[in-house]
Structures are given as C-alpha cells and as structure tokens.
Amino acid sequence: MARLSALPRNAVSRTAPPPRSAWTELREAPGPFVRSRPHLVLIPLVLVAFLAAWEWVVRFWSIPAFLVPAPSTVGGALVRGVQSGLYLTHFWVTLYEALLGFCIAAATGIILGALIAQFRVVEQTFYPYLVALQTLPKIAIAPLIIVWFGFGISSKVIIAATVAFFPVLVNVIVGLKTIDAAKLDLMRSLRASRWQTFRLVTFPNALPFVFAGLDIAIVFSVLGAIVGEFVGAQRGLGNLILQFNFSLDIAGVFAVLILLSALGVALHLIMQAVQKRVIFWAEPEEIINA
Known about the structure:
Elements: H1 2-5, H2 22-28, H3 30-36, H4 39-60, H5 71-84, H6 86-118, H7 120-135, H8 138-149, H9 153-177, H10 181-189, H11 194-231, H12 237-246, H13 250-278, H14 284-289
Helix pairs in contact: 2-3, 5-13, 6-7, 6-9, 6-11, 6-12, 8-9, 8-11, 9-11, 10-11, 11-12, 11-13, 12-13
C-alpha cells in the first residue's frame, strides 16, 4: 500500500493515447505511412502497367476490336453504358439476385451446419446427401431450375443460393467442431445446458470459420446469379453479356466484366468490414487462417 501511495497523483489516471486513423497518419507522416503499407502503391502501379502494356500490344499489332479491344475502347464503352443507365439497370438486378441468394444460403448453411455439428445422427443421415448435391455441377442443374421456377428472378436466386450454400455449411461444421476441450469441460462443471454451451462458447468460437465461409459464399452468389442469367433470363449482367456477344460488342463485354469484378471486390470488402466489427476479439492472423 505504501508503494501505491508513493506514485504520482496523475499516474493512475494516465491512459494510452487513442489510436490514430489511417488518414491522420497519412497527413502527418506520408513517407513512413507509405513505407509501412507498400501495397497501397503497388496495387495501382501494377494496374497501370498492365493497362499500358495491353493498350500498346493492341495498337502495335493492330488487333481487331471484335477480338481484343483496347483499354481506352473498353473505358469508353463503360462510361457510355453507365451514363445511359443500361449497365446500372442490369447491375441492380444481378446484385439483388446475388444478395438474396446469399442470405438464403447463409441462413440455411448456418442452421443446418449447427444441427449437423451438434447431433451426430443428423450428420450421418443428411451429410452424404449434401455432399452428393455439391458434386453435381451447378451449370447442369441450372436448366432444370429455370424450367421449374421460370425465367424470373426466383430461379436466379435459387441458383445463387445453391452455389453459395456449401462453403457456409462446411465452414460452420468445421468451426463448431474445432473447440478447446477445456472450455467444454468448464461449461460441464458449471452445469451449463447444451444451448448455453452452444450460445456462450461453441458458436462464438466458430465465428472466424463462419465468416470465412460467408466471405467465400458472397462471391459465389454472384457467380450463381450470372450462371442463372446465362441459362435463361430477361435482365441482369449475365444476360447483357450474352447480348453483347451476339452483336460482337466485345468492348461492352469487357465493360460488364469490369462491373462484375468491382461488385465482387466491393462485397468482399463489406464482408471483411462486418467481420472485423463482429469478431473484434480475434487476431487478424486467426481470421485469415480460418
């Protein structure tokens, strides 16, 4: 107690300074900020070098635009399509199909994965059928889904959910089964019920794996929506790609592919941000390795 009383009065109240934002670090010390994050410079440099090489090869070898258009031509097609509203109209359709399919796949995968991981009889009964369903190529069953549910949005949502379902299911099962036995012994010693153990220990422990599956599934849902639009659709970016192919508008095809790439990257970044908010206690390495 004497040692504590000898401390300065402001020693106890002294706290660590709040963490600075990345924008503040960039303004105060741009040199060290860039050196500590070289990827912020390398990513745009690689893109610029790739586009410059692509433009030079197309113009030097006089490659026809209906085979490989120059990046400048693709950029012009992208700007015209966005300004006319054509790309955005089809973009929102594909985004709606992908997100709705992802939500269905996420909810179904988490619920079914939890049942399989918690009850062995459920795993032994249903898991072989789920594996058999996963081995079926989705492009093969897509025409059947189109026939059963029509050319509207519902068939594309079902295809997107089917493609995105299995990554969520597998990661949920692995996450729920990967738990320290000491934690389970502690809950048993406290006479916790199965639901309490699942809610307080098992499921929080599995969240890094769950989000790893959701991160994959949200990208797969976009692929599923595009597959459905290829097979049969009246709207969507996949249908737009087919129209441009028929008219040999290859610059328009590349422009749509750029939109799809931007959509996939944006959904991935959003999922990463949600993951950091929800499982803030996990280390970054643990999240990535999951």
